[in-house]
Structure formats: structure tokens, C-alpha cells
């Protein structure tokens, strides 16, 4: 009887040890998996720098559709570094012939996104006036003072005309920089992408005319 009890205790002890080893194995396996699986924002700075650098190739393949524009504060005679420029892809052109100044207010339709990632293959949308497809008929507009926007955005708008629809690619240096947004919706070192349609603009101290999508139907 004692022998049976001892053997049972011994077997139980062995099972306990095996169980512990199994748990440890699962734990290490789980840790290893977490360490090797890429996170949404792993190597984010490097990925964003590479993405922005790749836009040079896009411009070479379709030069008529793309623009490379120096930040508005860069003197024309100076050739800046790569991140002193934005890229803009012209989606469609309006019938306007003049552009806003830095001190003007603008009325726009826009959608701001991050670069593509695992969860968001089209890029995470961090701010938008658009519901569904980008459309002047269904989207809302918003007014903003151009001087209160990030440098890359302000740079682009100063080259757009009424009715223009551009996709703007802004490097981190001309966007939200090394800190990102206070809300965390835009991480540090993010290249940001804006789809923007310029509806109207007005000089400081001048009221902007009322606007409704019904005017365009």
C-alpha cells in the first residue's frame, strides 16, 4: 500500500514537473512570437522615410501628374534637403487661376491618412470631412486659417487653385515631426497624406461667400 502511494505521489510529481515545463515552453513560445511579429508601428520612422523617398520614382514615371514643391519658407535660390519638399499628385484640376496666400482663410474638403500599414492597407484616416468616397457632392467642407496648418499643408494650398483636387504627401519634418499629435492619432515621424480639394479662399478680414454642395449639382 505504501509502495502504491509512493508511486502515485512520484507519478503526480512527474506530471506536475511536465506540466510546469509545458507552461514555460508555451510562455517562451508566446514571447518569441510577440517579439518576431511586426507591430503596426514597428520601425515606423524608417518605414516612413523609405515611403517618402520612393515618391521620387512616382514622379519620374508620371511627371505631368506630379509636382515637387519646396516649403513656402525656403528661399527660391536655395536647394533644400529632401524633406524640405512635398510631393503632390494632381487628381483633377479646377477652373481657378489664382492661389491663396499664407494669411488667407480657405474652404476645403479633405482627408488625412497615414502611410499604408498591416491593419490599414489604404492608410489610417486620422482626420476627414469625407464620409465614404471623396466627392464634392456628398462631402462636408471646413474653413481654416492657412497659417494655422502644418507647413506641408500650407505649402500645397498656396499652389492650388479653386476646384483643384490634389493628393499631398508631406514628410514628417513639414508635418507633425518627432512628436506627432497630442492625441496620438498621428505617431511621431509620420509621413502624412492629404486628399484636398480647394473650394474657396478669402483674404484676412474678408468674409468668405457661403457655399453648399447643392451649388455643384
Explain the overall architecture:
The chain is an alpha+beta fold. The protein contains 3 helices and 7 strands. The chain has helices at residues 2-36, 44-61, 151-157; strands at 66-70, 85-92, 105-113, 125-128, 142-145, 165-170, 192-202. Strands 1, 2, 3, 4, 5, 6 and 7 form a 7-stranded antiparallel β-sheet that branches. The protein starts with a helix and ends in a 15-residue tail after the last strand. The relative contact order is 0.16.
Short note summarizing the structure:
The chain has 217 residues and is an alpha+beta fold.
Detail the topology: elements first, then pairings:
Layout: H1 2-36, H2 44-61, E1 66-70, E2 85-92, E3 105-113, E4 125-128, E5 142-145, H3 151-157, E6 165-170, E7 192-202
What Rg do the Cα atoms give? 27 Å
Largest sheet: 7 strands, antiparallel
Assembly context of the chains: single chain
Q: Tell the overall outline.
A: globular
What share of the residues does DSSP label as strand, in percent?
15-25%
pLDDT averaged over residues: 84
Helix content: 25-40%
**Helix tally?**
3
Q: Report the end-to-end length measured between terminal Cα atoms.
A: 94 Å
Instruction: Tell me how many strands there are.
Output: 7
Strand/helix succession: HHEEEEEHEE
Low-pLDDT windows of residues: 1-11, 23-37
Structural class category? alpha+beta
Amino acid at each position: 500500500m505504501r509502495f502504491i502511494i509512493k508511486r502515485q505521489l512520484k507519478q503526480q510529481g512527474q506530471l506536475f514537473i511536465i506540466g510546469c515545463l509545458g507552461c514555460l515552453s508555451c510562455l517562451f513560445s508566446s514571447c518569441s512570437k510577440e517579439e518576431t511579429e511586426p507591430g503596426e508601428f514597428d520601425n515606423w520612422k524608417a518605414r516612413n522615410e523609405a515611403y517618402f523617398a520612393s515618391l521620387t520614382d512616382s514622379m519620374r514615371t508620371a511627371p505631368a501628374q506630379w509636382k515637387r514643391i519646396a516649403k513656402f519658407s525656403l528661399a527660391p535660390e536655395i536647394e533644400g534637403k529632401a524633406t524640405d519638399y512635398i510631393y503632390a499628385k494632381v487628381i483633377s484640376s479646377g477652373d481657378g487661376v489664382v492661389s491663396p496666400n499664407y494669411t488667407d482663410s480657405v474652404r476645403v474638403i479633405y482627408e488625412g491618412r497615414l502611410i499604408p500599414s498591416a491593419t490599414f492597407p489604404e492608410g489610417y484616416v486620422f482626420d476627414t470631412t469625407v464620409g465614404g468616397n471623396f466627392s464634392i457632392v456628398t462631402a462636408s467642407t471646413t474653413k481654416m486659417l492657412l497659417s494655422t496648418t502644418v507647413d506641408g499643408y500650407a505649402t500645397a494650398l498656396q499652389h492650388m487653385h479653386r476646384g483643384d483636387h490634389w493628393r499631398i504627401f508631406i514628410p514628417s519634418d513639414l508635418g507633425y515631426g518627432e512628436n506627432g499629435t497630442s492625441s496620438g492619432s498621428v505617431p511621431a515621424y509620420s509621413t502624412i497624406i492629404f486628399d484636398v480639394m480647394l473650394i474657396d479662399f478669402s483674404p484676412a478680414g474678408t468674409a468668405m461667400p457661403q457655399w453648399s454642395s447643392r451649388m455643384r449639382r
